[in-house]
Amino acid sequence: MKLQNANLSWKENQPHSDLFDDIYFNPADGAAETRHVFIDGNQLLTRLTSWQRPVFTIAETGFGTGANFLHTLAFIEQHSLQIERLHFISTELFPLHKKDLARALEQSFPENPYAKQLIAQFPPLQPGMHRINFSDRYTLTLCIGDAATAFAKLDTEVNAWFLDGFAPAKNPDMWRDELFAEMARLSPPDTSVATFTAAGFVRRGLEAAGFRMRKQAGFGHKREMLTGIKTACPLQQREKPWFAAPKTDKPKHAAVIGAGLAGITTAYALARRGISVAIYDQASDICTQASGNRQGALYAKPPVAPTVAGQFHLCGLAESIRWLNTLNLFDNVQGAQCGVLQLATHEKEQQRQQQLIDADHYSPEILIGVDAQQASQLANTKINYPGIFFPNAGWVYPQALGKALVRHPNIQVYLEAKVDNIEPCDQQWQLGYQQAGDTKAATADMVIIANAKDAQNFTQTSHLPVKAIRGQVTHAKGSATLTTVICAEGYVSPPVDGEYCFGATFDLKDPCESLRGIDHDKNHAQLQKAAPNIAAQLEAKASWDGKVGFRCATPDYLPIAGPAPDLNAYLEQYQALRKDRKANVPSGTPPYWTGLFVNIGHGSKGLITAPLLAEHIASIACQEPSPLPRDIADATHPARFIIKDMIRKKL
Ligand SMILES: Cc1cc2nc3c(=O)[nH]c(=O)nc-3n(C[C@H](O)[C@H](O)[C@H](O)COP(=O)(O)OP(=O)(O)OC[C@H]3O[C@@H](n4cnc5c(N)ncnc54)[C@H](O)[C@@H]3O)c2cc1C
Ligand SMILES: C[S@@+](CC[C@H](N)C(=O)[O-])C[C@H]1O[C@@H](n2cnc3c(N)ncnc32)[C@H](O)[C@@H]1O
Asked: Which domain of life does this protein belong to (predicted)?
């Protein structure tokens, strides 16, 4: 089913759902309603005052205008509650149009900085999970889609439920037994729930799922509402238990090996959580290898019908755009949100794009179909092909992104520092590295291997199936002015200081590190096809320069990000899979190298995959909810190749 925005009308300046014929919140006093029903209904003042753990997680059904979320932040600040980190996970099947959200919030939260940030960073109409960090203390994860379906893809612990929504009689589809079952699955004992309704089937459904419910006085004209506590705790084995997240204490010190996009974004996500991070790179600067391009396109290629990988890439694109906007990197020098045109230069791709547009799975905020004339107008140069246009995408200078992130005070970068080995030692990791001819050592609670293909040089990760793919880009001055990124067989970005960056070649098993004239010719031929006038107006070839880099690719072209499996222990623990892929296997935590994580294999899409996976790794290392639904976390899990090979009896 294609997602739709909420269809609203405004009654006395208050939002009203036409589809459900219901209101979003009490028009007389929405703040008091949230306080009575959800905040007091979950006893948040008492619970948060005495909460000792680093994270408290609230989950909500029906995000609507975000009023419950914003009132909760205001409540925490008003009472100076000292919780370290609040995660607020909400679900929304009919997200508001941004203009409606702005109208609702400008009215209810006129000078509220969190409301302004929510409006600015509200995700596009893209199914899946979208994360917005509000300061380093509050994190909103908005799951766009049906509540029960979204919660079924979470593996986290919820401490309080805001069971909001339109009246059960008006929207019975949301208030299903599956929803109550998922709520129960995510709730350890003592998790609380509160809802504005007192409907009998809701009470019975929650009780059957394992909550002890009671009625109490409702808000305003509503006589009664329901609150409850999780009591019974049926133990459920996670599907694919070999991918379950590790349970470790939040680290204090982390070491990241590799100062490319993967390493730096992970370091930043950890640093934001108060962890002190040391990054080691063998090069003399950050972002010099695959991340060393002058301009990288924020580029996704959505499939005709949505897939797990397609959703990952589009949610990753939205996440990267949020990071780049927050860091003010779209300044037309370090990056630009100028849109990306994906041209269909041959018949097969034209058919594919036509099917994609006809299937109508993607909202115009994500992509629109354009003919050659529209493409020419958007790009400000003659284009001979139709295509699809991503209005919110663009390009960025990866090193500028890296430099902005390593400025975080919790991050220290060690350059010309080549890590040779890592060993577990007394609940910590010891790193041996070479710097300025000296052999040095360092320790950390957590290590993140983010050195791309060279991850194979460490014994713990030597089994990971990555390969290098050489790519050369060309730099050339030119007089024409391109105004969007164009992707076809290759890509070209708008010029910076009159210089174009275009390419790139794509060669397996080619270790040559120097620039080659023949590769400049290949890049130029691709450019001629995509944007002939840009190619024609370049300065003479003798003045061209460029850059060679090596992408790190995996067999399924998805990155490898998460806890590092101990290969031999996996072979032992899950040996039954060799005989029967459905065999019962031990349900405990999988045998990871404690405190060791990996973030590699970003292929040609590191700019849209690295930030989201960095946030995923930092979240699971700190026992916080991940920003990834289970299917994407599993699809990028470092143990997936071991399990696949065991099932196929190759291991
Ligand atoms: C030509 C080309 C064009 C591309 N274009 C795009 C694009 O338009 N859009 C996009 O999204 N992506 C693009 N990519 C892909 C993107 O650049 C990569 O996915 C991303 O940069 C990978 O980052 P990384 O940190 O994993 O790897 P890298 O940037 O390669 O970083 C790995 C780091 O590890 C360091 N290292 C290795 N071994 C050690 C050790 N033992 N000790 C210490 N340090 C070590 C290296 O020095 C290096 O700095 C392109 C890639 C290439 C090559
Ligand atoms: C009463 S409003 C919520 C008000 C909101 N909590 C706020 O603070 O503004 C109910 C919301 O539930 C959403 N909704 C309806 N069906 C849903 C479903 N199946 N899953 C998730 N959300 C749903 C509606 O689109 C609407 O935004």
From this structure: Bacteria
